[in-house]
Amino acid sequence: MKLIFERSIEGYENDWIGSSDVPSYNLPNQFVRQQDLKLPTVSQNELSRHYTELAKATFGVNDGFYPLGSCTMKYNPKINDEVASFSGFKEIHPLQPVSSIQGCLETYVLAERWFSEINGMDAFTFQPAAGAHGEFTALLMIKAYHQKNGDTKRTKIIIPDSAHGTNPASAAMAGFEIVNVASDQNGCVDLAALKAAVGEDTAGLMLTNPNTVGIFDKNILEITDIVHQAGGLNYYDGANLNAIMGVVRPGDMGFDVVHLNIHKTFSTPHGGGGPGLGPVGCKGLLKEFLPDHYPLMTEEGQFDFSTPKSTIGMVKGFYGHFSILTRALTYVLMLGAEGISASSKTAVLHANYMLNGLKDKYEVPYGSHCMHEFVLSLEKVKKDTDVSALDIAKALLDYQMHPPTMYFPMIVPEALMLEPTETESKKTMDEAIQVYLELYDLAYENGEQFHEFPKNTLVGRLDEVKAARSPIVRYQFTESGD
């Protein structure tokens, strides 16, 4: 397809953009461009075609099966967008008086009540802009807690070897040392390794449950108690909350603080560079460390922002991405208590349905049952046929399916990680199971052809190493400017 600059024709223009309603201002000469800005000039028709072509070249949930394990790519109900577009929500400004945004502040307080109930927490902040940002915020709160108690020797965060890569990265950014603990034969935390790792220098544990291989750790209460007994705090990575929301609460498992991936669990837009939202909830012992501008209802019955006693300060400009919160809250209120639990139960049902449809051929490293996602290993397939997990993923593109997560978690060799979510139909899952089984058989019949897939997509097999090491990220103009 052509780039927008390649569609450009000198002299063409659009005239449908209205005149500016902002007073003009003449910049001082030292700030004025010395040459014209190189922008494409296209007709409205060509501009429309360009963006339509881009949309057609992009695969999304609206196009087909998208079982991206650990990332929960599920349908976003359109009512979420409708509510977020209410004029009272979309036309606000962060600098306007608090008295004029009472409905928006009430939305914050209502969201805190619902998310606290779902997660077993006492308070929430909606400032963090994404999941990893939520991790960082929660770790800063843990750090502030220990510092206030004069427990400055607690410098280490314990993280399982199957954790998301953002966990150790966030802990390192917060100034902690990382201590990895091994997984046992079931893919869960090795209790002996955990007991050996904790001590007077333990600040906390970062853990998601269900874990990264899709298993609910039956020892979770013992795990969190081990950390508490050592004087540390327990942090819950909300990446896999979609499997348990409305059924089991992180707070009841012994966690003191939690971040939520709103896009994974509560149906807000996923990816694309944002804006996003990574709310952080906490038990009462951490409430005083929440970021500044904490929304609450005053004794007079009005809504206002407050400053927690020992706040870690602002972690985001103003108060967070409000329109994303309205989408998530709409989803929660639309489903209600029964719908929330039904959603997670259906996600678990769907994952187990697919797992049982594939386990007779594909190797399943961690048992025949899972929560909301499961991991397949193609280690034996690669050894027998030289067809790798990447080859299978590329072949899936020819079946109008998005590949699952590849090579994660790293404790599983040649891993494919599938998460069908609760919003897929049985028909779609049956078709996907059949494709996976056909590709398995084809690998043993004629594995060599897998190195040529995909064959029917917009572009064929790409040189991914070159794309990663030598990316072309800007348009190269000729000297004439064409």
TrEMBL record:
UniProt keyword list: Oxidoreductase, Pyridoxal phosphate
UniProt cross-references to Pfam families, sorted A to Z: GcvP2_C
GO CC annotations on file: cytosol; glycine cleavage complex
Keyword presence, Oxidoreductase: yes
Enzyme Commission numbers on file: 1.4.4.2
GO biological process: glycine decarboxylation via glycine cleavage system
The keyword Oxidoreductase belongs to this UniProt entry's keyword annotation: yes
Catalysis performed (reactions): N(6)-[(R)-lipoyl]-L-lysyl-[glycine-cleavage complex H protein] + glycine + H(+) = N(6)-[(R)-S(8)-aminomethyldihydrolipoyl]-L-lysyl-[glycine-cleavage complex H protein] + CO2
Domain of life the protein comes from: Bacteria
Job of this protein: The glycine cleavage system catalyzes the degradation of glycine. The P protein binds the alpha-amino group of glycine through its pyridoxal phosphate cofactor; CO(2) is released and the remaining methylamine moiety is then transferred to the lipoamide cofactor of the H protein.
UniProt name for this protein: glycine dehydrogenase (aminomethyl-transferring)
